[in-house]
Each structure stands twice: as C-alpha cells, then as structure tokens.
Amino acid sequence: MDNLLEIRGLQIELPRGKNAVKLLDTVDLDVRKKQSFGIVGESGCGKSIMVNTLLQLLPYPLRTQAGTARFDAQGGELELISLPPEKIRRIRGREIAMIFQEPMTCLDPIFTIEFQMREAIEFHTTQSHHSTQDKKEQTERCVEMLRRVNIPRPKQTLASYPHELSGGQLQRVMIAIALINNPRLLIADEPTTALDVTIQAQILEVMNELKEERDTSIIMITHDLGVIAETCDEVAVFYAGEVVERAPVVALFHETAHPYTLGLLHAVTSMGAVEVESDRTAGVSRQLYTIPGMVPSGGEWSKGCRFAGRCDKRMPRCDEEHPALAAISPQSQSGGGHLCRCFRSASKATV
Length: 351
Ligand SMILES: Nc1ncnc2c1ncn2[C@@H]1O[C@H](COP(=O)(O)OP(=O)(O)OP(=O)(O)O)[C@@H](O)[C@H]1O
Ligand SMILES: [Mg+2]
What we know:
Layout: E1 3-16, E2 19-32, E3 36-40, H1 47-54, E4 63-73, E5 76-79, H2 85-91, E6 96-100, H3 113-123, H4 132-148, H5 154-158, H6 167-179, E7 185-189, H7 197-214, E8 217-222, H8 225-231, E9 234-239, E10 242-248, H9 249-254, H10 259-269, H11 271-282, H12 316-320, E11 326-329, E12 338-340, H13 343-349
Parallel strand pairs: 3-8, 3-9, 6-7, 7-8
Antiparallel strand pairs: 1-2, 1-4, 4-5, 9-10, 10-12, 11-12
C-alpha cells in the first residue's frame, strides 16, 4: 500500500424506524505515510463520527452503512471497518492512537499518571509477568515520554493524580500516552480547543516535533484554520456530512475554491477585531465571525448543493443538482490534487 490509510465510500447513518438518516455521505480520503492531514468544518458536519468509526468507536445507535478503510498496519494491510473486535482492540492505541479535546475522557481520576501510562504499555505487551528490571525500564520510558512532551518535572508528574495537573499538562500527558507505543497514525480530535492560545501553540509544536521524529501520520480535526495552517500539509473541508474541498494546505489558503471555505477563512481573518470586542464586554474568550445560517442536519439536506442556502454565489442550478467533488487542478508531486464540490469552480477548471 502506498498510503497509510485509504477511506472509500464511507457512509454513516442514524437508524430511524424503517428509514435511516444519513450523517456521513460517501467520503473518500487518503492519508499518506508521515503526513499531517487536517479536517476542518463547523460543528455537526461529521468529523468526529468519521474518525470514530475507523476504530469501531461509533456511538450507539449510529452505524456504518457502507464503505471501507484500508490501513497499512505493521503486520500487513487491514480493513478497519469490518475487523473483528479482538483485532481492532490490538490496533487501538498501538497502531492508531486518538487524543480528544477533553483529556478526562481518557484519563481516570482515581489512578496516578504512572499507573495509566504503564497500563497503556502493558495492554500491548504480550508478556504477563514483569521483572523488577522490566518495571524500571517502563518507568524510564514514561519519564522519557513526559519529557518529550515538555512536562517540566516528569518524575513528580508520574506520581500525580489527574486533578493535580493543569489542563495544558493533562493534554500533554494524554499525548504522551497516545504516543508511548509509537503508533503509525495519531488522530487528534480538537486537541487544543479547550486550551489558551500559548499552551495551544506549545502543544502543536510538540506534535509537529514528534511527527518529524517518529514518522507518525496525524489526522488533525479542528474548527480552527489557524491550527491547520500551522500543522497540516493537506486539508479536507467537511460540510453537512461530505467533503466540499480538499487541497494541499497552501492551495487551500491561496487558491480557495469553495464558497464555504472562503467563509471559514473570513471567520479567521475577522477574528482579531471581534475578539477584542467580546473580551471587553462579556469576558468570553473567543467569538468568531460566523457564516450566516446553520449547517443543515442529517435528513435535512437539500437535493442540490447542501451549502446553497447560505451561499452568496448561488446560481439556480445549485438548488437542483448535487455538485460532484471534482478535480480543479492536477495531482501535485507531493500527493493530492485540489478538489472542489462547486459548479463555479468546476466550470473554471475546464481547460
Ligand atoms: N450518538 C448519536 N446519536 C445521534 N446522532 C448523533 C450521535 N452522535 C453524533 N450524531 C450526529 O452526527 C452528526 C455528526 O456529528 P459529529 O460529532 O461527527 O460532528 P463534528 O463535525 O465532530 O462536530 P463538532 O465540531 O461539534 O465536534 C451530527 O449531526 C450529530 O448530531
Ligand atoms: Mg467532533
């Protein structure tokens, strides 16, 4: 396999009586080895359910209705969606690790950090008995990993309980746990949204360093195009359960094609002014410019373009036909080309 991960025709549904509501609609994505792939889009677009289904962690009653996800695992190629439970358990944490916005979703308040880090190591070790020597080596591995994510006093931190650490420290501990088994793919689902800007920048730097050092690929999910610009080499923009634009990161920012992506970019560039205003009034940390209107939820998608209702470049055709995700520039040498799901960019592409 050339790529690390190849998602094809992925569809996720919410069963409702005899019918089903589609939540993710025929998504295709490739993640290359050593790549940092960004996924961006407003709340409810299907970003989390897509990555959750890769590890068979889809919340009940959602189900993967169609599609495959081929993964180049250490022991050979696997199809993740149909993998038996005992096999997917060996993939989780060892070959594919996930970190979340809220560290406490994966840390247990009643155990020390050391206990939880060891547990992560031991789950994927075949030996069941450990000598004193093994234990010493494990502790060293934990200390080393905490040092790598810039935890100032690693030994002290190992002996701490989660409530004794700050949000930024917990986030680092979670990254350390995620990376301790050297996964081939790290999925970060909004890992920095809950943190202040300085800590956020530090965490992103740590992730970038680790990627370079260990050749880990990263899928970075975020609302924030600034985070994408800093960490990713390719980006997929999600809207209403589908990919509306996919491009190398430079092309996404400099040759933005989809009106929705333009709206997201406008939100970033306008942020400074709004932030000051909101800080002054309500003490709210961030208020983004938002594109007027709301993302339609599953079951409320129009037959035409799903963004048409909010689009200032809408044409009559947009209400009637569903645009395809079409190439608007050829594959670059580094991999992916530039794809866009909009009639306007499709007509421009014909050379
Ligand atoms: N357990 C569930 N039951 C029913 N619907 C669900 C469930 N989990 C998610 N959904 C729906 O699936 C859709 C996609 O949700 P998802 O969590 O993937 O969005 P997201 O893009 O990650 O949003 P956010 O940026 O807020 O995290 C939403 O419409 C959501 O309401
Ligand atoms: Mg989410």
